Amino acid sequence: MAHRISQLFTRGASASTPSPSSPSTPRDQPAASTSTHPVTHTRNNSTRVNGHTTNAQSRRRSPLQQVLQKVTHIFSDWSTPAVEEAYWCSSDMMLGAGMVIIQPETRKIVCVYERAKNYWFLPKGRKDVGQSLEETALREAYEETGYQATFLPLCHPHHQPSPDRPRFPSTEPLYIHAMSWGPKYRRGQISDPGGEYLTTWYAGQIPVDAPHHTNTGMPDELNYESHLLTFDQARQVFRRDGFFGMLIEYAIQNFVRTEQILAEWERRRAQDAEEQVGAQAPAAQQEVAQAGEPQGAQAGEDQAAQASEPKGVPAAIPTAEQMQGGSASSP
Questions:
Q1: What does the alpha-carbon distance between residue 111 and residue 237 come to, in Å, rounded to a whole number?
Q2: Which of the residues 44, 99, 186, 231 could staple to 204 if both were Cys, CB 3.0 to 4.6 A apart?
Q3: DSSP secondary structure code for residue 238 in this structure
Q4: Which H or E run contains 315?
């Protein structure tokens, strides 16, 4: 039983592995983590973790689906290839958010420069407890750039359902970036086994007269400098950074695409308004012509219409609302 319990609360250690406190353990050997480790059993190429089968055959996939699963799937030129099914518990992952801030009037991007370490980056950071990813993106944008940004709606492709509002433009995320960290050691022992850092990236905007605030960051962020760079300057700054370069280019192209789409929508609205005015012009001319007819001719037409009506039938049948309101006179 003691051996069984030790398996439940050790990570990556076997029964023959001495404990960290054992005299035979070298001083510089990292100690095993005490975080809970799931019980894993393997049988007939089927892996069961805590009673849950995780192999592909248990999902009842067809032979074709099983073959396609083994082929590396490429999504688009903007993304890395597909990865196998992965999951991380709360102790092994961290959530964050970042923002690409564009000044639409000047067509510039807010980029941050770290003076002490001489590198460029875009504002991002970890999510606080109880904070949404959207709130995190806005907070990090303000702390690291000094600008109070708002979300920028873009006509970029996404797969989020839109039951009660227009699908485009939207403020849905542009990217999700995954990066692992750790492990970290302290005094020869593991203080942090590491994990996966998932950052969600949004598009933001600031007006042309946006005020810039100073000393908005943390104590270790005092060397940050915000710069408004043109699209080409931002491309040049991040030309050697794989992800930031891709993120900047994706944001720029979707911003330009949104400008083109909105301009086309505005052109169509103006065209529809002109066509509507053109369709109303003949009717208005006819009303003017009828208003210019002699009163005697109009009176004769009214008398002829009244003579042709059956007796006892009102000229206009009152509606139910008029009858309830008492506005219709009885025949």
A1: 9
A2: 99
A3: T
A4: none
Asked if 95 and 127 count as a contact pair (C-beta separation under 8 A), the reply is yes
Indicate the pTM of the whole model: 0.67
Dist. CA 260–CA 27, nearest whole Å: 64
Q: Which ranges constitute the DSSP H helices of 37-105?
A: 63-69
Using alpha carbons, select from 197, 224, 222 the residue that is nearest to residue 121.
224
pLDDT tens string, the chain, 331 residues long: the values are 444 433 433 333 333 433 333 334 343 444 444 444 554 444 444 444 444 444 544 456 777 776 666 666 778 999 998 888 899 999 999 999 999 999 999 999 999 999 999 999 999 999 999 999 999 999 999 999 999 999 999 999 999 998 888 888 999 999 999 999 989 899 989 888 999 999 999 999 999 999 999 999 999 999 999 999 999 999 999 999 999 999 999 999 999 999 999 999 999 999 999 998 888 877 767 776 776 655 554 555 555 445 444 444 333 334 444 434 443 333 3
Closest CA to 185 of 23, 29, 16: 29
Compute the distance between CA of residue 212 and CA of residue 145 in angstroms, rounded to an integer.
8
Cα(275)–Cα(295) distance, rounded to whole angstroms? 34
- Residue in the block written with tokens 């007796």: 311
Cα radius of gyration rounded to whole Å, the chain: 35
Supply the DSSP string of 203-228, one letter for each residue.
EEE--TT----SS-S-GGGTTEEEEE
Q: Which of 101, 140, 146, 143 is closest to 124 using CA atoms?
A: 140
User: Cis peptide before 169, with omega less than 30 degrees from 0?
Assistant: yes
Phi, then psi, of 329 in degrees rounded to 5: -85, 145
Separation CA 317–CA 49 (nearest Å): 77
DSSP string for 38-51: --EEEETTEEEETT
